[in-house]
Amino acid sequence: MVSEIRDRRFSGGYHCPHCSSDRVVRYGNYRKRKRYLCRSCRKTFTDLTSTALHYIHDKEKFVHAAKLMLSGATLEKTTKKTGISIPLPLAGGTKCLIS
Ligand SMILES: [Zn+2]
Prior knowledge:
By secondary structure, the protein is α+β, with helices and mostly antiparallel strands. It folds into 2 domains: 2-46, no CATH class; 52-98. It contains 4 helices and 3 strands. The chain has helices at residues 2-9, 59-70, 75-82, 88-98, and strands at 24-30, 33-38, 44-46. Strands 1-2-3 form a 3-stranded antiparallel sheet, with no helix packed on it. α2 (59-70) runs antiparallel to α3 (75-82). The protein is elongated, with a radius of gyration of 15 Å. Bound molecules: zinc ion.
């Protein structure tokens, strides 16, 4: 899942989510994610920085919920099946993130 997001997000080459610079280098790891350093603004980021998944702790549950919703399940049904509550703005973003 994360690799899919990384492939789509950085398909045109790595760029900084903070300043959009392409002067980006690998900078070790952060919480099992590849970490990068922007040489322009000196900020670091991971594959998920500035994505909806960055703020979600149980990513597997979120992916399960997203798949349910993409298959046509309502927000209420998805919440009951997965046991998680997806804020409405994120629910809309889920389709953008996965499709
Ligand atoms: Zn930057």
